[in-house]
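FAQ
Q: What does a multi-component entry look like?
A: The components come first, one per line:
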Amino acid sequence: PSWEKRVTRSAQRRSSHGLTVLVTGAAGFVGTHVSIALKRRGDGVLGLDNFNHYYEPQLKRDRQKLLERNGVFVVEGDINDSSLLKKLFDVVAFSHIMHLAAQAGVRYAMQNPGSYVHSNIAGFVNILEVCKSVNPQPAIVWASSSSVYGLNSKVPFSEKDRTDQPASLYAATKKAGEEIAHTYNHIYGLSITGLRFFTVYGPWGRPDMAYFFFTKDILKGKPITIFEAPDHGSVARDFTYIDDVVKGCVAALDTAKKSTGSGGKKGGPAQLRIFNLGNTSPVPVSELVNILEKLLKVKAKKKVLPMPRNGDVKFTHANISLAHKELRYKPETDLETGLKKFVRWYLSYYPGSGKKSSW
Ligand code: NAD
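Then the predicted structure of the entire assembly, as tokens:
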């Protein structure tokens, strides 16, 4: 079928109540899961991704195959390409954008700062520029990050806490995204919801994240490095299972109000919301490793080193009462249950990787 046919077929809703969603970063970890969840319940979904080589290109291609099997077409292109975006809006009247495309990862920023500016700042501005210029204007839900809390040490983090001390360029670009969202909401009346994700993990996850490369290295018998905070306290993360995050994303789309297009001059102010989507139970990285050892039946070779100043923060912990109240968000998966599902996926996706069991 022609490009237009594939685009319209993918974006076709099954019922008149359904949403029509453009998912950017659709071949990414969260994008794949959100796109499939929306498509399965009958929404129209079109993906957009530039398939960059930040991590395993094959993994993104395999997620694309999974998306296609589920009826989701992924257009290959960059969020900075205005003419491509306008062309997509000419073909489909999207009611919502789920904007997940970004340069993720905190350490990569040291060698590749431009990539963060390109995707997380310029790309986001471009998305908003296109959204403001089309009619009807879609409601926007986008991924911010728990990293905006930066060096703030007051836990648990709640949405009103200070976010003026980002610890990495990645965090700074996510914080900049929030400022940019406020501006476009105020001036152009765009309806915008930002979701601060907390260390999302699960099947089809990201190979640059600790739970993923620990699994790989433990199975290979390679030593893993566990960082200890300067006060010798444990580094901990509020690990959040992908299915819980997906439910939060879908609820954010479902409760997003239409853009007013008037900067709040007519018909009341447009909606601007920011929510934490975490798990409310931080787990020390040492405990993450213990669980992986148990599930993989392999003892890890551990090195403990002081935490370098490379952009990581010591601790993350979400207060999710706002998301619970407004989105009915309620994470249900504890780390061991979620990791069990991740490990099962990992061993089937990389057959042969689990053979060297040495328990
Ligand atoms: P991911 O890297 O797997 O997905 C992002 C996708 O966006 C990739 O497939 C990439 O190819 C695509 N992309 C990047 N730049 C692009 C561009 N300029 N144009 C088009 N496509 C582009 O990451 P993820 O873990 O799925 O994260 C999704 C979103 O959630 C990101 O915005 C990320 O910053 C945010 N986030 C993720 C986590 C987490 O733990 N996974 C935590 C906090 C925030």
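Q: Is there any commentary attached?
A: Sometimes. For this entry: The mean pLDDT is 94.
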